[in-house]
Amino acid sequence: MCTVLGVARSTYYKSSDKTKSIREKENEELKIAIKRTYKDNKGIYGAPRIHHILKTEEFKVSLKRIQRRMIELALCSITVKKYKSHSNKKVAEDLENVLKRNFTTNSINEKRVGDITYIHTIKDGWCYLASVLDLHSKKILATLSERE
């Protein structure tokens, strides 16, 4: 069979009798532990946090080794972008402060406040949520949401 395939007999026997080294066995155990830790933390943790957790579980591994195994497993942490507003500050300076930090009211619809929140989603990018709140009833009166 070796002559048909053009392979030396020593090569055939070396590959057939090959057993895993201690390091390869450790790497397999490490990969299982990395996958478990990654899943337990919903894919948010990266190599430094996984390294810290595995150190507490008595694994003696370096951060670089965990990074290499995570690359082999195609695992990466999920990062959430912070929104950087690029608003014009002149607009805010021109507006008058009507409430003057007096948030108490005597009746419904006497005072209303609004806010805009920026939410980053993986699928749609930045989404904007605008809401209007009645200060007396503490209920949201209106909302508007759009994606960029």
Briefly say what this structure is.
InterPro entries: HTH-like_dom, RNaseH-like_sf, Transposase_IS3/IS150/IS904. This protein has 148 residues and is an alpha+beta fold.
Mind explaining what this structure looks like?
The chain is of the alpha+beta class. The chain has two domains: 2-72, no CATH class; 89-147, no CATH class. It is 39% helix and 19% strand. The protein contains six helices and three strands, in the order ααααααβββ. The chain has helices at residues 2-5, 9-16, 22-40, 47-56, 63-72, 89-94; strands at residues 112-121, 125-134, 140-147. It has a three-stranded antiparallel sheet, with no helix packed on it. α4 (47-56) crosses α5. The radius of gyration is 29 Å and the shape is elongated. The mean pLDDT is 85.
Features:
single chain, 148 residues, alpha+beta, 2 domains, three-stranded antiparallel sheet, 3 strands, 19% strand, elongated
- Main sheet record: 3 strands, antiparallel
DSSP helix fraction: 25-40%
User: Class by helix and strand content?
Assistant: alpha+beta
**Lateral arrangement of strands in the main beta sheet:** 1-2-3
Specify the overall morphology.
Answer: elongated
User: What is the count of structural domains?
Assistant: 2
H/E topology pattern: HHHHHHEEE
User: How many beta-strand elements?
Assistant: 3
- Rg: 29 Å
Provide the residue-averaged pLDDT: 85
First-to-last CA distance: 65 Å
Low-confidence stretches: none
Strand content: 15-25%
Tally of helical segments: 6
Domain HTH-like: 26-83
Pfam families: HTH_21
Organism: Clostridium frigidicarnis
InterPro entries: HTH-like_dom, RNaseH-like_sf, Transposase_IS3/IS150/IS904
